[in-house]
Write a structure and sequence with these properties.
Helix content of chain B: 55-70%
Largest interface: A-B, 114 and 118 residues
Number of helices of chain B: 10
Low-confidence stretches of chain A: none
Strand content of chain B: 15-25%
Oligomer: heterodimer
Number of strands of chain A: 10
Order of helices and strands of chain B: HHEEEEEEEHHHHEHHEHH
Structural class of chain B: alpha+beta
Number of helices of chain A: 8
Order of helices and strands of chain A: HEEEEEEEEHHHHEHHEH
Radius of gyration of chain B: 66 Å
Strand content of chain A: 15-25%
Strand order of the largest sheet of chain B: 3-2-5
Largest sheet of chain B: 3 strands, antiparallel
Largest sheet of chain A: 4 strands, antiparallel
Distance between the termini of chain A: 205 Å
Structural class of chain A: alpha+beta
Chain lengths: ~290, ~375
């Protein structure tokens, strides 16, 4: 009775073990190849539950998702032999499981290494035929799409790997070169600073000069206008005088002379030496007695 | 029922309250066994099988009970809840089945694999470094990116490490954009443009990888010239300030002198105007005075003339020192100590107290002169 029970349980266990061994799940994130004694019989097992014959079939699973290859920094030369430290990454995925399995034994690390070598060579060539400027700014996209396309045909054919994308992360000058760039940047800034300062002085001088000019012009104009006004006054007064004095020029001369005498000799302490014959003294000399 | 038991804790069990209280496990098992025994027993009896069947029945029924319990436990493990922040990605036997919305959910355990992914949490990544610009300068940039997972299935199933991919793509996109920009643009007004361009480029990359990531915002936190050249850049800023300062000073100077000049000009004009009015008025006045005087003169010319003459003479002779010389034909030698006289008169000016003396002296001199001239006349006669 006990032994019967035992065999039943044993049999059940065996069934379970065998069924576990003959069933396998390929996840959505995986791809798989099924081998029959080492020979590929199903190169691409779709996701889901599948059956295999235990011990005869083996299953190798690979990553279906996009994988990242992050390469270490490499030094490349541009066409003008300028060294650049370049850091890139590549995105790839398994496209042909059979080829991938045969080429890399299904190991991602080996695939990474193979890809890195190929991309390295490709990048080296692409950099070698471009100038520094083109690499840094102008043709980054083009360079990358070119490289991806070129390499893709090879990697798909040889490794069963589809290169989704190759991107350059860093493109930097080596540290020794960086220092000279910094020096140049510094000198450019110094130049700029000097320019700003001298432009400031220039502007200031211009403003001052303009102001001085305006001042001079204002003063000159004012002088001119003032003289014109004075002249008008002089002319008007001359006309007025002339109009009046023309009535009797002789009398004018007389009156005017008298005033001039007054003004000229009126000072305190002036000394006059007089001849008594002058008309003024005629009565002084002759006296009333003469009359 | 006995089912409730393995759920652990009757309170938590969703169906706990529904049945007849918390039955003991052993008791329940016993009951079940009895019932099953009855069932099998009658069956066996009907079948006419021998003894020993009860043993087998016992073992068989135990297995069934275990199986039922196992199924129950299995079923219980299938419950899970999805938070409002989350979506759950369900793989059925490895194949993508569905993306599940928030709520209480049940999926058969072991057959379905459920992964919950937060889709509302704003995640962040940042990057900082020195990079080359288009004009071969080097700038120091720090930026951060905020993103959410907008497609949990892709996030989980299409890329192996989406977060790392984002960091790589971010660095590549940023350096690309900076490498296509001029340094001045990067460190000054172009920041926002660079953030926008980086965001677009990054999103393109991430979409190409089907990473299921939606970039919400790229922030340029800091964009500066590298520390090695910071001083020079600061000096440029100072130089710009200096330029403005010099300009302002000059403008201050201009603003100072031009109004002053305008004022001075106005003064000159006003003075000229004043002069003009003055001379015209004076001329008119004098002319009028003369004209009126002339009218009177014409009425009595000789008298007026004489009067004017004498008035004038009086006016100025009266004020000054006088020396009268009565010389006839100048035949006599005459000596006038003019310098002495002048000295005297100046001394008189200095000391008003001596005025009288000088007058006396002058009188004496005049007297003397007169006597002399009279004497010579007499002699001449």
């Amino acid at each position: 009775m006990d032994s019967r029970n035992f065999t039943v349980i044993l049999a059940l266990l065996a069934v379970v073990v065998i069924s576990f061994n003959s069933l396998f799940i390929v996840k959505q994130t995986e791809r798989a190849v099924m081998l029959k004694f080492g020979e590929v019989v199903n190169p691409d097992v779709p996701p889901g539950l599948h059956v295999k014959v235990p011990f005869m079939n083996t299953v190798r699973k690979f990553e279906r998702r996009i994988l990242t290859l992050d390469a270490p920094t490499q030094r490349f030369l541009t066409v003008e032999k300028k060294p650049l430290d370049v850091d890139f990454y590549a995105k790839w995925k398994v496209s042909d499981t059979q080829k991938f399995y045969t080429a890399t034994n299904g190991e991602e690390i080996r695939a990474d290494a193979l890809l890195a070598q190929r991309i390295n060579t490709g990048l080296r060539n692409k950099f070698g035929e471009r100038t520094f400027h083109e690499v840094v700014s102008g043709e980054r996209d083009l360079l990358m799409t070119d490289l991806t396309r070129d390499l893709n045909t090879i990697t798909v054919n040889e490794f069963g790997i589809e290169l989704v994308d190759v991107r350059v992360k860093r493109i930097d000058l080596p540290s020794q070169v960086s220092q000279s760039v910094f020096d140049r940047m510094k000198s450019e800034r110094e130049r700029e600073a000097r320019e700003h300062r001298s432009t400031g002085r220039e502007l200031a001088e211009k403003i001052r000069a303009t102001a001085d000019r305006q001042r001079t012009i204002i003063a000159a104009n004012a002088y001119r206008d003032a003289q014109i006004i004075r002249g008008e006054g002089d002319a008007m007064s001359a006309r007025t005088y002339a109009a009046a004095y023309n009535a009797n020029p002789e009398f004018y001369a007389f009156v005017r002379s008298l005033r001039a005498y007054k003004d000229s000799f009126g000072g305190d302490g002036d000394m006059l030496v007089l001849d008594s014959d002058s008309d003024f003294f005629r009565y002084l000399k002759e006296g009333a007695g003469k009359r | 029922m006995a089912w409730n038991e393995p759920g652990g804790g009757n309170d938590k069990d969703p169906w706990g309250g529904k049945d007849q209280g918390p039955p003991d496990l052993d008791e329940a098992l016993k009951k079940l066994q009895e019932r099953l025994n009855k069932l099998f027993g009658t069956g066996k009896k009907g079948g006419g099988s021998g003894k020993g069947g009860s043993d087998f029945q016992l073992g068989g029924s135990a297995l069934v009970v275990i199986a039922v319990i196992a199924v129950f436990v299995w079923g219980l493990f299938g419950f899970y809840q999805v938070d409002q922040q989350e979506r759950a990605v369900v793989l059925r036997l490895g194949v993508y089945h569905s993306t599940v919305l928030p709520g209480l959910r049940w999926n058969p355990p072991l057959i379905d694999e459920v992964t919950k992914i937060n889709v509302t949490k704003v995640r962040a990544a940042s990057s900082r470094g020195q990079m080359l610009t288009e004009d071969e300068n080097i700038v120091d940039i720090a930026l951060s990116v905020q993103y959410t997972v907008n497609d949990p299935a892709n996030f989980l199933l299409k890329v192996k490490s989406p977060e790392l991919s984002l960091e790589h793509a971010l660095e590549s996109a940023l350096r690309h954009v900076v490498g296509s920009s001029k340094m001045d643009q990067v460190i000054t007004e172009g920041r926002e443009e660079i953030a926008v361009a980086t965001q677009q480029r990054l999103q393109t990359y991430l979409d190409a990888y089907q990473s299921g990531i939606q970039v919400a915002k790229v922030n340029i936190e800091d964009a500066q010239p590298p520390s090695q050249v910071q001083d020079a850049f600061d000096d440029v800023t100072r130089a710009k300030e200096d330029r403005e300062r010099l300009k302002n000073e000059a403008e201050a100077y201009a603003n100072g002198i031009i109004p002053e000049a305008r004022g001075a000009a106005q003064r000159q004009l006003e003075e000229a105007q004043a002069y003009k009015e003055q001379v015209i008025a004076e001329a008119e006045g004098e002319a009028q005075r003369f004209t009126q005087l002339l009218a009177e003169y014409q009425r009595a010319p000789n008298v007026t003339r004489e009067r004017l003459y004498i008035d004038a003479m009086q006016d100025f002779y009266g004020k000054s020192s006088k020396v009268m010389v009565d010389v006839d034909g100048g035949s006599n030698m005459m000596y006038l100590p003019l310098d002495k006289l002048m000295e005297k008169s100046s001394a008189a000016r200095a000391e008003r107290s001596q005025e009288v003396d000088i007058r006396e002296l002058t009188d004496k001199v005049i007297e003397q002169l007169r006597r002399d001239s009279q004497g010579s006349r007499r002699e001449g006669r």
